[in-house]
Each structure stands twice: as C-alpha cells, then as structure tokens.
Amino acid sequence: KNQVEQSPQSLIILEGKNCTLQCNYTVSPFSNLRWYKQDTGRGPVSLTIMTFSENTKSNGRYTATLDADTKQSSLHITASQLSDSASYICVVTVNTNAGKSTFGDGTTLTVKP
Amino acid sequence: KAGVTQTPRYLIKTRGQQVTLSCSPISGHRSVSWYQQTPGQGLQFLFEYFSETQRNKGNFPGRFSGRQFSNSRSEMNVSTLELGDSALYLCASSLTRGTYYEQYFGPGTRLTVT
Fold first, then answer.
1. Whose C-alpha in A73, B7, B57, B82 is 20 to 30 A from the C-alpha of A14?
2. Which of A76, A77, A81, A56 is nearest to A66 (CA)?
3. A100: which chain B residues are within 8 Å (Cβ-Cβ)?
4. Quick check: A42 contacting B, CB < 8 Å?
5. pLDDT tens-digit profile, chain B (114 residues)
6. Interatomic CA distance for residues A66 and B65, integer angstroms
7. How far from B38 is each of A36, A98, A112, B16, CA to CA, in Å?
8. Residue B112 CB neighbour total at 10 angstroms
9. Other CB atoms closer than 10 Å to residue A28's CB: what's the count?
10. Across the interface, do B107 and A43 touch by the CB < 8 Å criterion?
C-alpha cells in the first residue's frame, strides 16, 4: 500500500532557529515528490517539486532533499520567521496522475517570537 | 496568470440539503482535482477530471459527484449533506508537460453543515 509518513506531527521553534521536517514514503513507482505549505484555512502552496534524479531543491529559506534509495525526503527551514507557522505537507506522485498522489498528514510548525 | 479560483469561499448548509461548489482552473490546465480536508485527516482525494471526463475517483460515497465543462471549469456536488461533510474543500488544477507535473491549489471552500 502506498503510504507517506511525516514526522514530527507538530513542532514548536523559536523565531530565527532552523528546523527539519521529515517525509518517508513507500510509494512506487515514484514520479515526483512535492512539499507544500498550507496556512490555516487556505489552500496549499507549492514549495518544491523533485523528480527521481534530483536530490536537493531550494526555494529561498526552504531546502528540500530527496534520497530515492531510502525513500526519504526532508524539508529544512533556515532562520525561521513567524510567517513560517503553517502545516507542511509532503506529497508523492506515481506517474503523473493526480489520482495516484499520496498525501502525508502534514507537520504543523509553530514559530514563536 | 490568474491562479485557481473557488466559489464560494464560505458556505453554511443544513443537514439534508445539497451543495454545489465551483472551481476555475489556471488557464491552459485541463486537469482538475477535488480534495476534502478535515482537521486531523489530511487531504482526502475525491476525484479528478480531465477534458470533461472523470479520470480517477477516491473512496467517497455516491453523494459526492462532480463534472467538468468544456472550458475546464469544474463543479462538485454533495447531496443529502451530513454533519461529517463539514470540511475545507480544495480544488487543484494541474499541468503535465512530458514527465513534468505540477499541481496548484485554490483557496478552498469552507463548508459548514449544521
């Protein structure tokens, strides 16, 4: 069964600190892995998308890594800001069919001043 | 280029009623997917439409239905609403270029069933 597991479930950090969110998946065959940021009550916004051949992708203070061999991905946030408080969702897609995307339950990040 | 738009943004309905939600994808995107998001449940896939045809369907009862028009706009209908249908309903349009795939979400429609 295709699964995407994210950890931790929630995280609280102080403003300015770094943090790393984890995503482990069993989806196969792998097409791409995406990280989304979702503010409360809003739609998810894409942060990064990585295919099999990519192992690092950055978007400002966000850096995603992918190890296709161990089926693990991480999202590293540098110098956190209060606006980083949100849910971060990992999505793994088989082929290019939306119906075969598997969503993680997300990590809720709270950045405190 | 305008993003994915969803209307209405907020909706309050009574149990037993039906509701129709609308989604306009990004121009040029032919695929529209619908998701239900409830607290603690994550995003649950409802269905996907591509060129007016339902291409995939999630594990939801038949009360949930959808359609797509020739201009790629999509509607989702829920009949005989239940309290448990209260959720954020998200629409996403997607673009496939060869092996490249990207999915963009709308702001969602917050449905409250009382």
1. A73
2. A56
3. 56
4. yes
5. 679 999 999 999 999 999 999 999 999 898 999 999 998 778 899 999 999 999 888 889 999 999 999 999 999 999 999 999 999 999 999 887 666 677 899 999 999 999
6. 36
7. 17, 20, 25, 19
8. 12
9. 9
10. yes
